[in-house]
Amino acid sequence: MAPTVTGLGYEWTVEQTGKALEELIELSGRSEDDSLFRGKPKNGVVDVSLGSADALTAADSSVYCIVIDPPYYDNVTYSELSDFFYVWLKRTAGLLFPDEFASYLTDKDHEAIANPFRFRGQKNSKKLAGRDYQERMAAIFTECRRVIKPHGVMTVMFTHKASGAWDALATGLVKAGFVITASWPINTEAEGSLHIKEKSAAKSTIFLVCRPREKQLENAEIVYWENVEPQVQEAVRERVAEFQEAGIGGVDLYLASFGPALQVFSENWPLRRGRPIQKPRELPLFPDEEFDPYAVWPEDALDAARREVKRWRMEQLATVKRQHHLDPLTEWYILAWDAFKAPRFPVDEALKLARVVGLDFDQDIKNVVGEVKSSDMVLWDSSVRKAKGKLGPMGDTCMLNTLHQAASIVREKNTGASKKAIEDHGLHDDATLLTTLEALLNVLPAVASPDKAPKLEAHLAAASSDFAALEKLRKLAFAEVVPEPARQLLLPIAAAEDDNEDTTEGEA
After folding, report:
1. Mean pLDDT for the stretch of residues 71-96
2. What percent of the residues of the chain are helix, what percent strand, and what percent coil, each to the nearest 5?
3. Co-location of 484 and 424 in the same domain
4. Is residue 158 within 8 Å of 210, Cβ to Cβ?
5. What tens digit of pLDDT does each residue of 250-260 get?
6. Is residue 91 part of a domain?
7. pLDDT of residue 490
8. Does one domain contain both 127 and 32?
9. Residues 6+ positions from 323 with CB-CB distance below 8 Å
10. Distances in Å between the alpha carbon of 335 and those of 111, 141, 246, 362?
11. Is-contact 185 243, C-beta < 8 A?
12. Could you tell me the pTM of the whole model?
C-alpha cells in the first residue's frame, strides 16, 4: 500500500475498513448502537473461529455455502509479512485474546503457499514447493467437501499469471471431489497497487463456483481427453469475446479463459488419454514420480485455452484480412507483448507460449529475441538484437527480423532509407509484412506525455523506440493499407531520440 498515493493510501484503507465493519454489523442483524460481540444476534449465531482450514470444527454436511480466498501460490509470503504487524497486535489485541497470540511469531510451517525456502538444499525445490501447495490445498478442499451439504456451493477466488499455480489449485479441487460449474473474472486490483505497477501482473481475480461431485461408479466408462479437448476449445471460444468486450485484456484475457476451460475439465474428471504422449521435459507438479503417458492434467486444459485465445487475439491484432501466414517466432513475439504488456515476464509463461505456437524455447527463442534473467524472460528490441548479432536479414523467413531491421534503419538513419530497403527486397506489398506491421504496432508500447512522467525501465523505453520508428514507416509508406494503431499500451516516458527528419523516397 502506498500511503501517499491519492485515493489509494491511508484514506482508502480507512474507508474500506469502515465499509467492511458496516457490512458485518448489518449481517449480524444489529444496529450501530448494539454491541457486535455480546448477546445473541437477531439473525442467528455468528461464530468466528481461528484455526487451520484443513481441520474445520463444523459437522459433516452441515454448511450451505463456503467462500474461500486462498493464498495465490507463491505470490505473497503472508506469514513473513504478517510478523511486522503480529508483534504489535500481540501487545494490544493479544491482551484480549491471549490464546490467539500465544506463539512468538506467526506459523511458517503450516502456511498453504508454494515456498521453495521450505525445500532449500533439495533438488527441484521450486517443483517440490508447488507439490506441497497442491497437497495442502487438496487437504483444505477435502475438508470443505466433508462439511458442505450435497447441494451446497463453494466459491474459490484465485489469480496467478503462472499456469503452474492454476494446475496446482485445479488438481486439488478435482481430487477433493468438486466440480467447477461457473467462473467469472472480476477486476480486483487497484491501478496504483505497488505489486502490479509497471509489471506483467494480473489485475483480475477469477471466481470459480464449485459444487460437490456425485460419487462416480467404479465401472463407469472411461472419458478420453481427445473427446473433451474440443469441448474445452468451444467453451473458451464462446466466452473470450464476452471477456474482451467487458474490458479484459492482456494476461487477464488468458486467465479469464482458464475458468471455462477448467469447468469442462472438472465436469469430465477423471480423464485418460486414448493415445500415449512422450514424456515432457518437466512434469506439472511431480518431478520424482513415475511418468504416466496416459495421464491428463489441468495444464492440458489450460494449454487448449491458450491456443484458442491466441487464435482470437491474432484476429483482433491484424484487423485487415489478408492472405498471410505469420511464422511462429513472429507470432510468439507479438503474443508475448500482447499478453504481458511488458518486456519482462515469467520464463515459465514464455515456455508455455512457445508450446502454443510450436517452438522450442531453448533453440528458437532464448538468446534470439530475448534472454533469461533469474526466473524471467526479458524481450529485446531491434537495437539490442542487432548489437548481439541475433537479428536476421531483411527478407528473412522470419518477418520479425524484417521489421526489426526496418526499425533499426529508421532509428539509425531515417524513415526514407527504411522504406527504400523494404522496396529493394520486393516487400512493399507483401501481405505478411503488412499484417505483421499492424500487429506489432498494436502491441508495442507507445510514447505518451513525455513531459509528465519519469523515465522507465531501459527495455521498455527501447521497445517504445521501435514503436515510434515503425509508426513513422507506416505513415510514410503504408498509411493507405495499414490502419492507425490502437496503441493499447501508452507509456508516459521521455520520448525516444528523434531520428533524422522523415524524408521522401527521393531524398533517402
Report:
1. 84
2. 45, 10, 45
3. yes
4. no
5. 778 888 899 99
6. no
7. 56
8. no
9. 431
10. 35, 35, 20, 18
11. yes
12. 0.72
